[in-house]
Amino acid sequence: MIRPLDPTGIDGILARLRSGEPPDPGVADRVASLPAAERMPVLQALLEEPAARRWVRGEILPRLDPAAAAALAERLLTYEADFVPERRDRTTAAVVRALPVSALIERAPFLAGSNAAGVLWERLAAAGPDTVRDAALRVFREGAPVARETTLYLLVLDPFGTAPLPDADRRALVLAALADPDEEIRGLAAEVAADDLPDALLADTARWVRDTSVRVRAAAWARAFTEDPERAAGDAVALLMDEAEALPARRSALLALGEWLTTAQIEPVLTMFVKHPVRELAEDAAGLLWTRHRTPVPAQAASESPHASVREIAARLLDPRLGSPLAGGFRSGAEEQGYDFYDPFREG
User: Fold this and answer.
1) Coil, helix or strand for 348?
2) DSSP state, 87?
3) Which pLDDT belongs to residue 344?
């Protein structure tokens, strides 16, 4: 066993690592070449400190035979704090490379959300797309939200991903993500589906436009309007007008109408909803009036809204000097000629 006072032994290694310096050249070779019975207590002492674990991962693991490396990797994997994605550490990849595929599949729900997630999928890709698919589906069933979201990014969203999947397997992952309890993950999946797997949304548009995730609702409406604008507009108006529907779903329907309809088409809807008693709907309608659909009738209706924030938008649009000509405000050639930069100087 390495002598405790040996500058190249445990104390020497720890002293160098604590000072931020790497151990002397050859120390890693010496530790790795020890008989297993002597190497174990040395490693046990080193694994107690984060900096030493990093050195073990980066310098010792690659020098061990496969069986010894796999056993050590299993122990290193128990220090889960070293693998959190917020810690950028290239040495954790060595742990993943040292583990057999069976162990990687078993620990995929954890590793898929770690700082070694990319290497995990590289390793599993070498075992074939079926292995990648099955491990990914296990992540969606058992992994934490960060693991599921990272898996979706790496295997589905990344066009240069290291584990390309057949279309059928990619579809299976998107469908799993669409069923995810996390709203952000469902939102990402819905945006992918809207572009690449439209039937996944169109098969049950009524469900997806009422999802609790705003991103899912927006993606579902985008796909619906792209597929059949007239039908989608009718569905959106019906949902919006139904006072029994959830407010978030009604707001998304209104915003979808504002995005996909012309100003002439949406004018009656805006005229009605700028005066709606529900403040959020009235403000959404006023926002569409301000940003996309400036026209006089809804602007005049907004001036009669029960909500001060909506009336303020109307006042700005209808102002005879600074308002919007499209909304019925300042009009070139009218008696009120709008703001003249030189007026203050003339008045002085």
Assistant:
1) coil
2) S
3) 45
Q: Is the dihedral of CA 284, 287, 292, 295 positive or negative?
A: positive
At residue 16, the pLDDT reads: 79
**Where on the phi/psi map is residue 333: left (φ > 0), alpha (ψ -120 to 50), or beta?**
left
What ranges do the domains of the chain cover? 1-82, 262-348
CA distance 125 to 168: 16
- Nearest to residue 94, comparing CAs of 136, 49, 132, 60? 60
- DSSP annotation of 60: I
pTM score, whole prediction: 0.81
What local confidence, expressed as pLDDT, does residue 1 receive? 46
* pLDDT score at 329: 52
Burial of residue 307 (CB within 10 Å: 0-12, 13-18, 19+) is buried
For CA atoms 261, 265, 271, 273, the dihedral sign is: negative
What angle (nearest 5°) sits at the alpha carbon of residue 102, between those of residues 33 and 37? 25
Rounded-to-integer distance, Cα 191 and Cα 198, Å: 10
Share of the chain above pLDDT 90, in %: 76
* Cα-based distances in Å from 196 to 27, 200, 210, 221: 53, 9, 21, 15
Q: Helix (H, G, I), strand (E, B), or coil: what is residue 236?
A: helix
How far separated are the first and last CA of the chain, in Å rounded? 96
**Structure tokens, 266:** 């949406």
Task: Give me the amino acid identity at 114.
Answer: S
